[in-house]
Amino acid sequence: MFVDRIPKLGRRPSLLLAALALFCVVGFASLLGAPAGDNPSDIFTDITEEAGITWQHFNGESEDRFLIEAMSGGVAFFDFNGDGLLDIFFVNGGETPRGKSPAPVRNALYHNLGNGKFEDVADRAGVSRLPFYGMGVAAADFDNDGFPDLFVTGYPSSALFHNNGDGTFTDVTEKVRVKTLGKWTASAAWFDYDRDGFLDLVVCNYARLSFDDPKKCEYNGLRTYCEQKAYEGMPLTLYHNNRDGTFTDVSVQSGLAQFVGRALGVVSIDANDDGWPDLFVARDAHSNLLLVNQHNGKFSDSGLDAEVAYDPNGLAKAGMGVDAGDVNEDGWPDFVVTNFNDEYHSLFLNPGSFPYEDWTVRSRLAGYTRPYVGWGTQFLDYDNDGHLDTAHCERPHQPGHRAHEGGRQV
Fold it and tell me: Residue 221: exposed, middle, or buried by beta-carbon count in 10 A (0-12, 13-18, 19+)?
């Protein structure tokens, strides 16, 4: 799960806004310190029902086994009405040609009532429905009017909901030109890459998908989801904020369009302390990217030099979620990346120069995460001891789920 926030990394405050969360369970692990308890019930109490949160996700599961069915369901924590309390926006998935919902597929916007209770106001706010299959969400104030807006990713389009400041939102996607038509957009991050005072938008496009062309794969003679490598990757998209309520696609000019791969997670942070925001992009069976801001509207990939692109054996992991935080408290932002089971989630410590140090094993993250497929991830200090911990949306491995075990395309 990604929580929109502005982290404090010593002398490196930076905007961190990304969203890619999927149906999963959340596990906690202390990094570079004593391990947390094995039983989540020892740490947290489930108050979902008590809080009035009843929303359920629909993924359009069908016998066609479209990969998107296994990857949807974003969430954002943000204060949409400026009352000082965090509200929650849940992105629903959608229907597939043979995966129909018995009821209308709706998002949820839970208004925080301040007494431990939430009220779903999505219909009243105008954000309950999407004309596409929803996936992720990033919240930020793109027009500097003091109210956070919502960019929702999905397939085969995206949507930007402008916060009107009165408890309602307006879909301005067409007007501002960020529709991403025909693309499967997974996650996004708001960041001011040119430092002009207005937030720009980077979008992770995952893979080429068509509901008219279901790919057929088998595992032990049974129909299953195809592995991600059966889907061709897509380039990244970068939208520049024109400061007049519109955006311009600068993917080619910035150099981001050249990075073709199955991008799933993205986080923006000033990785090298030069005062300009950079990007870490987690990609699925493609090399991770560390895109360093060149101060001229362009980005250069330093993933190989930083040794974060591949694992120690030179293989590209199934990168999914990513977050940044100063784990060892040396003033430099580090990165955690979730991956497929048996690949381990990755922890990269930033020493202030290249290469980064791979602390996946030494931090015990390898042992904790080996059995799990990881999705979203978040650094947080859950026990208020002053040290960053990390939370991961995970699910136990299911043989044949993505045919990593040798599923055969037929």
Answer: exposed
pLDDT digits (tens, 9 = 90+) for 103-132: 999 999 999 999 999 999 999 999 999 999
Longest dimension (CA), the chain: 56
How far is it, in rounded angstroms, from Cα 154 to Cα 135?
5
Triad 25, 369, 73: Cα angle to 5°: 30
Q: Which amino acid is at 275?
A: G
Give me Rg for the CA atoms of the chain: 20
Burial of residue 219, with CB atoms counted within 10 A of its CB: 0-12 exposed, 13-18 middle, 19 or more buried: buried
- Determine contact, residues 376/392, Cβ cutoff 8 Å: yes
**8 Å CB contact between 273 and 11:** yes
Of the candidates 396, 390, 337, 391, the residue with the CA atom closest to the CA atom of residue 372? 396
Report the alpha-carbon distance of residue 130 to residue 73 in Å, rounded.
13
Which among 12, 18, 100 is positioned nearest to 337, based on CA atoms? 18
- Mapped onto helix, strand or coil, the DSSP state of residue 122 is helix
Sheet holding 299-301, edge to edge: 263-269, 278-283, 289-293, 299-301
DSSP sequence for 125-148: HT-S--SSEEEEEEEE-TTSSSS-
What does the buried/exposed string (b/e) look like for 117-129 if buried means 16 or more CB atoms within 10 Å of the residue's CB?
ebebbbeebbbbe
Structure confidence by residue, pLDDT tens digits, 350-400: 999 999 999 988 988 878 888 888 888 999 999 999 999 988 887 766 555
- At 86 the pLDDT is 98
